[in-house]
């Protein structure tokens, strides 16, 4: 999260958000991309978000794979939760926010405009997360190719033929960088990621040892992978 000033000298909070299929990530937070919706206030409220008269438990399991992240309201609600977590880390509950988000490499061209409109569907929003009220005004949203940010400021270091690979929970993005130049025609998005690898490991353990790995153990492994701890 960074602060900047606009041309009216207003403070804008820039928040980068990775809308993953397995986990939502910001600069300092990571949580499962799961949403459970309730018409009435649920009993357990550890990660409860209240928005537009509805109740949402954030982090309940993982969201199913969907090629269009705008097909329902889940990723919008998850975006609010991600913003709230970042603001809370700075002791804030009101801000004018500019979102920096990403899409799989080969989907950016066709989905960028729709995803931007999706994230900016409201000029401002009031909601409650973890019993704390938030007021957020949206200053804008930029959509980037996933993974490319890792190489953008070091392109001059990529001499010869290189391959940039971003392995997520639901997709794997591959980009060729030849002599510091990204090759748009050699970008690929595969529907294969950590989730599929975990399923293969689970199946192997069941076959070899007759052991079923608990979902909580798998979730911890995936969270460590997302943060680069393993």
From TrEMBL:
Q: Entry's Gene3D superfamilies?
A: 3.30.420.40
One Pfam family from the UniProt entry? ALP_N
Q: What is the lineage of its organism?
A: Bacteria, Bacillati, Bacillota, Erysipelotrichia, Erysipelotrichales
Question: What InterPro entries does this protein's entry cite?
Answer: ALP_N (IPR040607), ATPase_NBD (IPR043129)
This chain belongs to the protein called Actin-like protein N-terminal domain-containing protein
User: In this protein, which residues make up the domain named Actin-like protein N-terminal?
Assistant: 16-148
Can you name the source organism? Amedibacterium intestinale
């Amino acid at each position: 999260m960074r602060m900047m000033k606009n041309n009216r000298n207003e403070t804008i909070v820039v928040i980068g958000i990775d809308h993953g299929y397995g986990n939502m990530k910001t600069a300092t937070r990571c949580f499962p991309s799961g949403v459970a919706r309730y018409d009435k206030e649920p009993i357990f409220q550890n990660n409860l978000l209240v928005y537009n008269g509805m109740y949402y438990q954030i982090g309940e399991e993982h969201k199913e794979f969907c090629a269009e992240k705008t097909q329902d309201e889940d990723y919008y609600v998850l975006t609010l939760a991600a913003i709230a977590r970042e603001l809370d880390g700075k002791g804030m509950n009101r801000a004018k926010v500019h979102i920096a988000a990403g899409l799989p490499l080969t989907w950016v061209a066709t989905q960028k405009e729709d995803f931007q409109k999706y994230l900016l569907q409201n000029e401002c929003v009031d909601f409650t997360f973890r019993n704390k009220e938030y007021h957020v005004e949206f200053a804008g949203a930029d959509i980037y190719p996933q993974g490319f940010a890792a190489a953008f400021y070091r392109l001059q270091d990529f001499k010869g033929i290189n391959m940039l690979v971003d392995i997520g929970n639901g997709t794997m993005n591959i980009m060729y960088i030849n002599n510091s130049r990204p090759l748009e025609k050699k970008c690929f998005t595969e529907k294969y990621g950590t989730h599929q690898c975990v399923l293969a490991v689970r199946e192997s353990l069941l076959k070899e040892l007759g052991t079923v790995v608990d979902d909580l153990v798998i979730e911890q492994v995936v969270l460590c992978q997302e943060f680069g701890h393993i």
